[in-house]
Amino acid sequence: MELRFQDCQRRKPPHRDWTPPERCAALPDGVTVPEPDTLFDDYANRASPLKSQKLTVAKDMSLPGDLKIWPAKSVGQIPEMYRARNEEFRKLNPQGADLIHWKYQTYVKDCLRCVKSVDDSVGRVMDYLEKHNLADNTAVIYSSDQSFYLGEHGWLDKHWISEESIHMPFIIRWPGAVKPGSRPDAMIQNIDYAPTLVEIAGGEVPSGLHGHSFPSCTGRRRRTGAQAFITATTTMDGAWPGTTACGSRTACRCIILKRMNGICST
Which of 38, 71, 97, 230 counts the highest number of beta carbons within 10 A? Predict the structure, then answer.
């Protein structure tokens, strides 16, 4: 009897506030993560909203909320997995640029620790498929709802549609259908997920459904895919005040229009 199944799993560790499981808390230790060239970006000759956002590692990354540093707490009040970090911070007492360097290293390493926990979970899924002889006829997909700034332009989070955060991961392992190591250049978006999954399962995509099946996944021919995307971002009160951004993304260009208190600039 042919077994057909779909299993959807959610993992959210690589997101604010980047809290990894204890088994990953010491990784990576003793290394310095290379900083992006734009960590100290001054936004010169660019739209004024870039200087007014609240996304910076320097000013907007919280010591207690994001980095687990509690200056007012005694060591005994601090969770054990963060005690050494707090002791180091108090000893160093970084200021100015040194504080930004320290924040960046701590932020990115916490993010990598969270990614490691996701990698472990994906590994357990793959081990199960191998153990039960399902790996060769099962499509495994890893994706996300968004990307994230890791210090580029001095930022964390997302919200701006610059190159570093507009890309989303979509990785598929499907023996016999997708060539390992291949990287198609088709422009896709998350509304394409549903029709793609329908075709993978051998079904017919309902008419009127938004999006199209990825040709790189199904191997079937379809009409020409998207040539450009339009995107818009509105702000949450109190979090990223006063800024709305919209733009157009093609295969080779991204045009961004930002609005700040009624003033538009590109």
Answer: 38
> Hey, what long-range contacts does 89-93 have (CB within 8 A, 24 or more apart)?
none
Give residue 250's pLDDT. Answer: 78
Tokens of 103: 């924040």
Q: What is the pLDDT of residue 264?
A: 43
d(CA 212, CA 250) in angstroms, rounded, equals 17
CA atoms of 173 and 179, how far apart (whole Å): 8
Joined together, the tokens standing for residue 217 give: 């996944």
Both tokens of residue 235? Answer: 């702000």
d(CA 266, CA 261): 14
The vertex-49 CA angle with 44 and 51, nearest 5°, equals 50
Give pTM, 2 decimals. 0.85
Query: Helix, strand, coil % (nearest 5) of the chain?
Result: 35, 15, 55
